[in-house]
Amino acid sequence: MVRRGRTSLHISGQTALNFCICDFSGFLLYDSHLPIRAGARGNNGESRAGACEDREDHPMAMQYEYIAIPESAVPRAACAIFQHLLDTYASETSKIVSVWRGFAPENMNFKPNEKSSSVHEIMKHQLLSERRFFAEFIGLPDEPEAAALLPGDLTPEAFWRRDEELCKARLERLASRDEPWWLETVPFFDVRRQRIWIFWRRLLHTAHHRTQLSGYLRLLGKPVPSSYGPTADVTWQGADPTRSVQAAERK
User: Fold this and answer.
1) Residue-wise over 117-146: b if at least 16 C-beta within 10 A, else e?
2) C-beta separation of 157 from 143 below 8 A
3) What's the confidence (pLDDT) of residue 25?
4) For residue 246, how many C-alpha atoms fall within 13 Å in the half-sphere facing its CB?
5) How far, in whole angstroms, is CA 86 from its chain's centroid?
6) Which of 241, 237, 239, 240 has its CA nearest to residue 20?
7) Total-model pTM
8) Closest CA relative to residue 34, chosen from 207, 237, 220, 203
9) Of 31, 33, 62, 36, which is closest to residue 49 (Cα–Cα)?
10) Which run of H or of E encompasses 181?
11) What is the pLDDT of residue 27?
12) What are the residue ranges spanned by the domains of the chain?
């Protein structure tokens, strides 16, 4: 059963539809839609506290302004035990897009130090490196030619739209793979690893570069979007970050 409440919220000058979503697949999913800023108020000026009347004291789901790949767009895996791979790849790509959307075209050459990569270089590396992992190491067929990978317009929007496009196409091809394919050991640089191991290593690599650019947003004085929990710029009702010994002690 999914219980929902909704109210129209005024957030940073824009009106957004807010959903409380509870008891999804037996737990609360915190990466669905638009992050709610602390102190947001309904369009009638009331505090959002209590605005979602039928939420029955459930915490409010984290939400995003833009969802690159919503849950409904993730294909079903041929082997259900690998569905979490597709769900996580889609979710991580949506988080990448949320970060990349925070940059303006004039930020593309920004780097915090001469030894650092620029915003443009990191976005470029993400597209090229991910293609290499899926084509060369994982062996996923029908990857685009590397020469045609990068967008013609070297802006943040062009890059995040290309990343979204590439992920959606890969999800369809990954969904049909069976257990023997995922568990097969294949070459990975100078060693051999299972395809599923390489897949998770790829997602960790991607998260590393997303974190780099999250830091760049902060240095540029721009809001940092939420990835796995609240930030100094984004929070929501029910957010429960672990910042104390008491919170860590919970069982």
Assistant:
1) bebbebbbebbeebbebbbebbebeebeee
2) no
3) 31
4) 1
5) 13
6) 237
7) 0.76
8) 237
9) 36
10) helix 179-183
11) 31
12) 1-64+229-251, 71-219
Name residue 11's beta-bridge partners. 14
Report strand pairing: 3-11 vs 41-42: antiparallel
Question: Which SS3 state, helix, strand or coil, does residue 52 take?
Answer: coil
Q: How far apart are CA 194 and CA 204, in angstroms?
A: 16
Compute the distance between CA of residue 120 and CA of residue 126 in angstroms, rounded to an integer: 10
Give the pLDDT of residue 245.
Answer: 96
Dihedral sign for Cα 192, 95, 80, 162, please. negative
Q: Which residues touch 206 (CB under 8 Å, ≥6 apart)?
A: 92, 96, 126, 130
Q: What local confidence, expressed as pLDDT, does residue 160 receive?
A: 98
- 3-state DSSP helix/strand/coil percent for the chain, to nearest 5? 40, 15, 45
| DSSP class of 21 | E
DSSP calls for 106-121: GGTT--SSTTSPPHHH
Which CATH architecture group holds 71-219? Up-down Bundle (1.20)
In this structure, is the dihedral angle defined by the CA atoms of residues 29, 34, 37 and 39, taken in order, positive or negative?
negative
**Mean pLDDT in consecutive groups of 10 residues from the start of the chain, 251 residues:** 36 38 33 39 37 46 80 96 97 96 98 98 98 98 96 97 97 97 98 98 97 97 92 89 93 90
Helix (H, G, I), strand (E, B) or coil at 44: coil
